[in-house]
Structure prediction request, 295 residues.
Amino acid sequence: MTQPTWIRRGRGGRCALPEPLTIALALAAAGVPVLPLRVGKAPFANCPSCAQNACGGRPNMKNAGPCRCPGVCHAWAAATTDRAVLASPAWVAAWRRAVCVAYHPGAAGLTVVDLDNAAAVDWARETLPATRVVETTRGEHWIYRGAMTSHNAVCPGVDIKSTMAYARYLGFGTGTMTALPDTVRALAVKEPSPVRPTPHGLTAPAVGKEAECPHRTPAYLERGIAMAEQRITEARSAVHATVYRTFLAVLSTHGRCGCLTDTHVTRLFAAAQAKGETLRHCTDSWTNARTTLGL
Prediction:
């Protein structure tokens, strides 16, 4: 998403945002499919012809675009870059009632990591590569270049919005947008069928002696392990899935440089077992995560 030419910087470097339709037209001109959101930050309801997906279930389509009816129907699938549609009478009526603008990230070739609270933001700063950041009411949106499937609750307070989803447009943000990393893709990977552990027990992933460590200081790894322990400890549901995704995230970030030791692995296993996971489940999840990442 390139910076639209209409953006003007005001005091403190913040963007002076115009009305929703003006914002929408500017984003559409930049190739970003948009739609209006009503009070409650929700899409407008389907028209009578499209209610209950009577017109064929537009949300099952994989590409954004307006419904054949003139209304603003089917949530993310209504998103469009067509200026004639955006400024049509039915859409203008919706824009007059809109409270903000949303866009379909996947159709624009983008992925939004939606961080819903301060703890999630701290996790992202320790775990994910830097990219463009947009402040939200309660947290931040981290925007990467590249699309993937959307998933909710991949970690506590973390949603992934890309294909078949919408995200609010909250301004241009700061920072340089970078390519979608494997670390984010790994968060959406479902755990495969269990792979039986090898008899030698717990080991950190082996790496070559020439592997280059990207970590700035030993404290970087320590913070990452501590946050992983916290993520497992604070899980209120889907503990098994949380353990697997946490192992996957740790290995994605720390598994190739040689810094991860058996002591770190034991700490993660202990946190998981304190939540009720068996040693066998921990070992299976760790082995599956390594297999998924090719370690």
Summary: The chain is about 35% helix and 15% strand.
